[in-house]
Specification:
Layout (H helix, E strand, L loop, with lengths): L4 H10 L1 H13 L8 H13 L4 E4 L3 E6 L8 E7 L26 H17 L7 E7 L9 H5 L3 H4 L3 E12 L3 E2 L3 E4 L1 E10 L3 E2 L9 H19 L6 E9 L6 E2 L2 E10 L2 H22 L2 E10 L2 E3 L1 H15 L4 E2 L17 E9 L20 H21 L1
Parallel strand pairs: 3-4, 3-5, 5-16, 6-15
Antiparallel strand pairs: 1-2, 2-4, 6-16, 7-14, 8-12, 8-13, 9-11, 10-12
């Protein structure tokens, strides 16, 4: 690329105000998984203004391509997820969500802004690009049972990518730091539904009913022992019930109960055991309580593994942008990431977006989640520096 590292940092910093405005716009106008119609439209309008060819993909996604006179046929993919969560924002930052019950509580508004800013700078230096760059704006990352990457990975434009990189903002990592390391960084993430069929009746005569609530409670309590008594202590695992729905009034025993939950692990063999274990518990509780209990298990995202070679390039780029002392190592996280579903070698950098005042930091998926927006130009700079260094590697 025509720019060196110093120029990359300067151009990214020069875009700070626009990046902030973009991020705040998308934060104020969030859309949940598979509903990102307005978001898709705004992304395409911005790309059109930069003269960047783009096409819709995977219902509400967008894929754009930048190829200049010096670009090789090697395609580097850069992915940003674009959906929000079904969460009501509790704080009022001045760019609060205008969509009740929906919030960018995971930072995907940040990812959109960073990738759009990257696109703008790349477009201005299009003819100096050493590789073809494919910008992937992916919908529905948060929808574990049917996520956007599961479908977008099959788009021919995505399948042309030699490698794919991404970043994820982290509200609990201080601004100015970044985490990148090879190997497993996020767990396999699955969900399950448990349906309990009983026999309803009057609350005054439980002996004439088959109580699904009692069965659901027994199932919940039994599940708590799976990790502590059936899984090796050295194997990280989570099996959690996160929702319990049954009944509508105080004097009626209902017919049914519905429980929902999630399973997380870094061990593929252990992951395969989860649905068997859950159904075994369901069968035993069903027999004991005279109910019929069915478990529907939904395999979601596999373990997210940063490829060694892709990560190596990213680490050199990160050292140049953040300073080697600010590139930190973290323990793998039990959160899931559907970026894992893309077939090409890949790596994801975790971008520090935490405020200097630790009291202002909230974890992802909190209704108070927000970021230090000074992180935005750093994300752009890392993408640009990665492209520059990847191009040099290919020349060798």
């Amino acid at each position: 690329m025509i720019m060196d590292t110093k120029e990359i940092k300067e151009e990214a910093r020069g875009l700070a105000a626009e990046l902030t405005a973009l991020r705040r716009y998308f934060h104020a106008h969030p859309e949940q998984s598979w509903q990102e119609v307005h978001t898709q439209q705004k992304i395409r309008e911005y790309l059109d203004r930069q003269g960047i060819p783009n096409v819709p993909s995977t219902k509400t996604g967008v894929i754009a391509t930048l190829k200049g006179k010096k670009s090789s046929d090697t395609v580097l993919g850069i992915r940003a997820d674009i959906d929000a969560l079904p969460i009501t924002e509790e704080s009022d930052p001045g760019y609060k969500s205008q969509c009740p019950g929906t919030m960018h509580a995971c930072g995907h508004d940040t990812h959109i802004a960073i990738l759009l800013g990257t696109a703008k700078i790349l477009a201005a230096h299009r003819d100096e690009l050493p590789v073809t760059v494919r910008l992937i704006f992916q919908p529905a990352e948060e929808y574990i049972a049917d996520s956007g990457a599961f479908h977008m990975k099959d788009d021919p434009l995505v399948q042309e990518c030699s490698r794919i990189i991404a970043l994820h903002i982290q509200g609990e990592v201080p601004y100015g730091q970044a985490n990148l390391q090879s190997g497993p960084i996020m767990a396999a993430s699955d969900t399950f539904d448990v349906y309990v069929q009983g026999q309803g009746g009057h609350g005054a005569h439980p002996e004439k009913t088959i109580d699904p609530i009692a069965a659901g409670v027994a199932f919940y309590n039994s599940v708590q022992t799976l990790v502590s008594r059936e899984i090796r202590a050295l194997d990280a695992a989570v099996i959690g019930i996160t929702a319990f729905q049954s009944g509508t009034t105080s004097n009626v025993i209902p017919d049914t109960a519905h429980l929902m939950g999630t399973c997380r692990t870094f061990t593929p063999a252990l992951r395969e055991q989860f649905p068997v274990q859950l159904q075994r518990v369901a069968d035993g509780i069903g027999t004991a309580t005279r109910t019929k209990i069915r478990v529907d298990y939904h395999f979601g995202t596999p373990v997210m593994v940063n490829d060694e070679a892709v990560t190596a390039t990213g680490l050199e780029a990160a050292a140049a942008i953040f300073g080697r002392e600010n590139v930190i190592t973290q323990e793998p996280r039990m959160g899931g990431e559907d970026f894992a579903k893309y077939a090409a070698p890949k790596a994801m950098l975790c971008l520090g977006g935490g405020f200097v005042d630790g009291r202002q930091r909230y974890p992802q998926h909190s209704p108070y989640f927000d970021i230090d927006e000074r992180a935005l130009p750093l994300g752009v700079a890392w993408f640009l520096e990665y492209i520059r260094r990847y191009g040099k590697e290919l020349e060798k």
